[in-house]
Fold:
Amino acid sequence: MGRKWNNIKEKKASKDANTSRIYAKFGKEIYVAAKQGEPDPESNRALKVVLERAKTYSVPKAIIDRAIEKAKGGSEEIYDELRYEGFGPNGSMIIVDALTNNVNRTAPEVRAAFNKNGGNMGVSGSVAYMFDATAVIGVEGNSADEVLEMMMEADVDVRDIIEEGDNQVIVYAEPDQFHAVQEAFKKAGITDFTVAELTMLAQNEISIPEDAQAQFEKLIDALEDLDDVQQVYHNVDLGE
Structure:
């Protein structure tokens, strides 16, 4: 399952020197989560997940507060959550999650990004069945055995615990165990996470020829650069 999560996160963040695009996407996601329930993370689990993710990306408090205050202020801005599925070079599979206030704009933009970069959109369900919704939570400074003991003491079921890199341990669990895993860490005195994601993991990663990797990465970049796109998942091992 090794996905080198910090490398992936840092690659995304480095695409914009000011990370303004990432911050804007988080602002939208925080607003939507706060609108769907109470604007309080202690009583709104969806909001709490987003805020934990935002923390690992160092999203400024001002942006978080602005999005929550916008939700509290009764803004009538409505966003639809959409999922697109498609294929990239060499049979690669891609899932695109979007938040949009204009459905008629988003679908053509996603389709164009696929078509212009060697891919094509598929129908709903054509790709997602090859991915598993997964909670991914990472910490530094502990061994996999120590983390396993923390999870066992808290009676938390997880899928896997893997040491990744020199000093990082990643816990993979069912999405509904996201908070339970975090609470197990917090009971052990760990409150900082290198990764805190609800993601879609490919059941099987594939390798593609080196000459196709540049085109594939160009396609992923084009999708991630769309304002309405929040997350892009794929099944390609790029050796990051």
Q: What stands out?
A: The radius of gyration is 18 Å. The helical segments are 5-14, 20-36, 45-56, 61-72, 103-116, 144-153, 178-187, 210-224. DSSP finds eight helices and eight strands in the chain.
